[in-house]
Structure formats: structure tokens, C-alpha cells
Design a protein that fits this description.
four-stranded antiparallel β-sheet, nine-stranded mixed β-sheet, 4 domains, Rossmann fold, alpha/beta
Length: about 650
Amino acid sequence: MSKQQNAPDSPVARLLVTIAIGCGLWTWPLDSLYDPVLRGVWYFGAFCCAVGILKSLPARGDGGGLVGNLFRLIRAFGKDDSKGSAGFMSEREIRKVRLHRRKKGSRFAGIVGNTALWLWTETHHLIVGPAGSAKTSAAIINILMGSPESALINDIKGELLEMTARHRAKAFDHGIKVIDPKNPEASIKFNPLDDIVAAIEQGSAAALTKSRGIALQLAPNPQGGGGQNEIFYQGGRNLIVTVILAVCVALPPEHRNLATVYRALSDMDVLHDLLQAAAKSSALNGEIADMARSAHTQAFGDDGNAKTFESFRINAALALEGFGPGNYLAAITSETTFRFAELKERKISLYIKIDYANAKVLGGLSGLVQHLAAEAMVEAGNNKPVLFCLDEFTNAPCHKLAEILTLLRSAGVRVVMACQDLNDIERVYSKNDLETVLSEAHIKQFLSVRSKKTLEWLSAMLGEYTETVSSFAMGRDGAQESLARANRRLLTEDELRRLSPDAQIVLYGNHKPILAKKVQVFAISNWRKTVGINTAYGKKRKLLPVEVRLRWWGTEVTPRASRAYARIQRDLFRRRGQKGRFWRHLLGGLSVSPLLIIALIAVGLLQGQGLPNLRWEYGYRGAAHVQPRSYVWCRYVGPTSPGTINGPNCPLILWRK
């Protein structure tokens, strides 16, 4: 005969009843304890509470008892960084390190709750955002509207000049200069060969260095290197260097330009005469003459190198095709009306206006300007801050970008680079250059992420944190839950891809990552009234509801923007399903028992009716033999006793709150 087992009572229900009795004893009015009945009730409640506490304490052979289980549950869901401690920077932490203070040279990067985010760096800034992520209006223009230093601005879309030039001229007293190959009359002009001529006249070896730098910028190796054709790319660059130096020493000043270099590379007769004239030069201790004679021998000699030389010449001519006499770039590179060193000498905003339809040709010009400007910044010999703002910098590549980022910090050059995704950098430059960009950028601002490579990199960069996870096993007694520690990415690739369109991720120095809200310039007072009109979208000024107000004493975030940020956080953490796990696990351990049911009924009764009070003494009106008789007065005892009341309604038990 099997022994029937009683259903175990619920330890959680027992604890709840014990807590309820304890709270009742704690709030019991002390003046009522003089009554012997009430004193007996209080002692009985204390006895029940003590029994409940003793039953909840750990016992030998017990798994720690209810109290021990609760403590272990709290520890299980408590803070632990044994498997990772990644997390987003809180608003309090941002204020603690003073990232909410706007100081000279800081850049507005968005908002976190009620706090504006102002980031300062003396190095470089990378902005990543595909088309439609408000990269221009929520990042680049905000930087230009708040950065007073001289700037070289790559305007690949033609809208930065329209929208920021007037503000920079009025607010920062900048002179506005424009390089516009399609409108030479309104454009400044610069001749890259003028500096080479000056170096040759001084007998400086810088002439060789400058000419080789120009050749490398105009005729770079293809991505991944030249492979088996490396010798032809190198030979083409050497020929460009030779012809540039020959033009500088053999021709009069009006012909010392890249258009003449292209003509010499395209016409063998012109090249023959030019090399012969340069072979007679004594500049740079005769090195230019030796280079000219060697090239002349390869091109016109009888040693069988003419076919190889022809390959070199074709490569060189193709690299300078955009500078031909009838092309866009010939007019603005024929003479010098502006020196890039002026960026260090006075306040100037220099816009390189690129027509998107001719980005292949004109993008090469922008890369050459960046190259020449970087050399001028080094030669200036001071660290006065200059901003290089390169929108869509992979469409106008400067092949000395890695050197600019690593070496020009001491020269005061701060580069803001914007691109669609990390794939673009690796495609246009190289994998090593991508690593250099990521390591040298002190601020990395991801406005939106769609590329798989960028998703993988950013998810890994955000790090991992320790999470309590549940696992379930099905058995005869139903579902059994167990808890375990596990490491988890702060944001997985899928969570990054599905972030709110208003959200952005900012990596700033060695701080925790920042989850911030984007703020377009059209929602910033007073910038939205001073930013120019983008005529590509009509002639009407675009205005959005104000989210940030710039004051002289600080930056004010409007309630509208704060609520929008709260929605970003709420949507993110709702998808992650982190909140409420502790209570779900705790309630999952409850079992319905008669004691719990009785306790719930008692709580409901007391909540609706109040506590009971017993009629203890009373008095009648009328003779003893006359029926019915009515009460004159009644005295009650109990936790909420009204004392003595007058009749006639005196029930035996008075429920009173």
C-alpha cells in the first residue's frame, strides 16, 4: 500500500502571509494593547509571524530555504561582469565626464535624454551612414555650423556651399573661396607646378618629392596593388615625374602647367623636343637632365625599349587626361591665385565643388587638392587648427590619406571623413588603410548601418555583457526552469540593422558606446534660421519642430526630443526582452495552495470592509419586560475601534477601515 503524499505548501505564499501579519502587528495601535482581548490577538499574530519566519529560514538538508533561494535569485539577476561588462553610456555618465558642455572646438553630435552631446577631439572624426540616413543634415552641416577654424570642404553634392557658406562668413568672419572646375571665372586657381618650380630654383630636393607625390596621386596603383602589371604603373608614374620636371626647367612660365604635361605625353614630337631641352639643364646637380636623357633613350633609341616605353606613356597620359587643354581642369590649374598655406594664415572656408555627374574626373581633382593642402599644412610649421571636412571622401580619394591621419595631428589638421559604409573605404583604398582610418578616428559616428561588413564590425566593437538566461526542461512534473550566466553582444547585427531611423551609435575615445538621437540642423535653434536653402529641394526654407536650443549659458533639449529618445530606448529594450525577467521567474515559482487562497480572500475582505471590531459593552433604552428594546450606547474593541457610540444601530461586529 503506497503512502499518499500531501501537496507541499507554497513557500512564497507562506512568506507573503508572514509579511502581511508582520505589517499588521507593526501598525497595530499601541493604546489598544491595554485591552486583554486585543493583547491576546496581538500575541497570537506574533506567534504566527515567528513560525512563518522560522519556516522560511534555511534548514539542514534544505536547499537554503526560502530566504536562501530568494538571495540566490537576486544574485542571479544582479550585476555581474564575469563574462563581459559592455553597456551604453548613461546620461548621468555623460554629464559626469562633461560631454554636455560646449567648449571651443567641440562638435554637436546629438542628444541623450535631456542632455546634448558635444564631442571634442584634436584628431579625426569618421561618419558612416548610407543614403537617406541624414548624414549631411544631422552630422556634417552641424559640424560646419559650429566649427570656427579654417576649413577645406569637399562638396561632392554641391549643397554644403549653399547651406553653410553664408553662416561661416557671418558667424566666423571667414573668407569664402570656391574651387569650381565648371565655372572657372568664379573659381580660384592653383598651379601644382609652381611649388616645384620654386623648389628647383632653390636647389631643393623637395622638387623631386613633390613631383612624385603628384604622380602617385594622379596615377595610383589599382586596389590590391598592380600585380603583374606593377612595373607598368610604376613606369607610368616615373614618366609623369620626368615630364613634370622637364616642363619646369625647359619651358617659359606661361607653359608650366599640367595641361602642357598632358600635351607632351600625348604628342611624341612635343615629348621629343621637351626631353632634349631638359637634357641640357643643370638643375638639381644634373639629376633632371639624367632623367630626361634616360626617358629619351627609351622612347627614341635603338635599344628595343620603345614598346615598353609606349605602355608607360599610355598609362601616364590616361592619368592626366582630365587636365587636357580642352578639359574641365585645365583652366583652374593654369595659374595660381590662391595658396593653400593661407588656410593657416587667416580664416578661410575653401569649398571644392564637385559635379556628381563628372565625379570620376573631378573627384581626382579633389584628391589632388587634399594632397597639396596637406603638404602646405606641414610646411606652415605651426599647429593652428585646420578642418578637412571630406564628404563622401571615397568618391574623391586622396591616396595619402593614411599619412594625413597619422602624421598631420601635430600640424593641427583635423579630418572629418564621411562615407556610406566601411566597404567603401576598403574598396577605394585598402584593408590596411581601413584599419588606419578606424584606429585614428577618435570619434566614430554611425548614423545607420546596412552593410554586412559594417554590421559585423560595429557589433563586435560594442562588446559583450553578462546576461542571466533561462532554459527549460519538460518532465513528469511539467516545465522546469533553470538559470545560467551567458555572454551576449550589446547589440547583435539584427538589432543594429533594425534600430530606429532617429537613432545613432557613437564611439568616442575610450568611453562606453553612446546610443544617441540624431538631430538635424533644421531642428536646432538658432542654426535653422541661418543655414542656407538647398535649392535642389526648392526655394523654401526647411524647418522642423525645435529639438535643441543653443543658449550662451548652455544647450537646452526640448521635451519633444527627450520623448523621442525615450521611444528609441523603449523600442530597443522591448525587442531585447530584458525587463521583467526577475519577476517572471519569481512568479513562475508560485504554487496555488489553500493558504494562499485564504490569504487573498482575507486581503480582499479587509480592503473592502475594513478591520473587525467586537461589541464589548452596551446599554438599553426602555423597561426590561418591554420588547423590542433599542440600544442607547455601545462600546467596541478592536484595531479600528471607534470607542463608544450611541445607538440604535450597534451590530455585534463592526467592520471599519
